[in-house]
Design a protein that fits this description.
Layout lengths: L11 E2 L6 E2 L6 E5 L2 E5 L2 H9 L1 H5 L2
Antiparallel strand pairs: 1-2, 3-4
The structure holds zinc ion.
Length: about 60
């Protein structure tokens, strides 16, 4: 885990790790069923890809 701290301007939550992120600076995004999901890292996006349903239910 990288302990990189960003300014507290996060407006969306990375559903994989629960981190608040700013959509403008998200490392990765995914569209699923018409919803855009934002991720702090490509690793989180990959995790999402492996099981999108798990996160859309949340
Ligand atoms: Zn993440």
């Amino acid at each position: 885990m990288l302990g990189k701290k960003k300014s507290a301007t996060g407006r969306v939550i990375d559903l994989v790790c629960g981190m608040k992120i700013d959509p403008a600076t998200a490392a990765a995004t995914r569209e699923h069923n018409g919803t855009t999901f934002y991720f702090c890292s490509k690793g989180c996006a990959k995790t999402f890809d492996s099981d999108p349903h798990r996160y859309e239910q949340a």
